[in-house]
Amino acid sequence: MRARIYPLAIGKVIKHTLSNLEREVAGLLIGKYLKKKDVLEIWDAVTGAQRASSGFVYLDENTIAAAADWVLRNRPGLYIVGWYHSHPGFSLFLSAIDIETQKRYQMMFPKAVALVVDPVDYARTRRLRDLKFKVFRINRKGKVVQVRTTIGIHRGKVLESTIQGMELVELKYLGAPRRVEEIEIYEESSLPPSLSSVIKKFKEKLARS
Ligand SMILES: [Zn+2]
Question: Measured in angstroms, how far is the CA atom of residue 100 from the centroid of ligand 1?
Fold first, then answer.
């Protein structure tokens, strides 16, 4: 499997990882899997409540459920296709904790990938060559493998993912422009559904597609 990430999605991820160079930050990737080409397309990224230190980051289960539910209701044809997190100042790999996290994502979303970003050099130089990110997943043998990733170039999809992704920026930043940790994906103040119920719906949707 290869991955293709569209500009707005990687832009949002980079922007989020640059927002905190002391702690890890994390979020979810939204996109679709193209079966015939064996390509995972990443169209968008969202974030929400999380716990983090300099050595690990953990996305709140309600955040995952709320995001998955939001995608189900608002993005026909798109799914949660993985997660991203930053390794500020250390190299690009999956730690032991990350591997456990990634296994859980792959159980929930079969094609899930892990995008890891180190924003520190880029924060200093603002040169594109210092922008460090890699995409990983766990193969059938349980080993971590790198997923070859390119930036999306399909014109129609660049436009569509940008228009859709900008909508989610506004939703994401509603009411709390600077405090990424406290952003709610929900439009209303309703409680997010349970993760297991959303995952079930997700799998039904995937089975139909
Ligand atoms: Zn990590």
Answer: 11
CA of 120 to the centre of ligand 1 (A): 15
* Distance from the alpha carbon of residue 104 to the mean position of ligand 1, in angstroms: 14
In the predicted model, is pLDDT for residue 190 greater than 80? no
Helix (H, G, I), strand (E, B) or coil at 51: strand
| pLDDT tens, position by position, 114-126 | 999 999 999 999 9
Helix (H), strand (E) counts: the chain = 6, 10
What's the predicted TM-score (pTM) here?
0.86
Domains of the chain plus CATH, in order, are 2-208 (3.40.140.10)
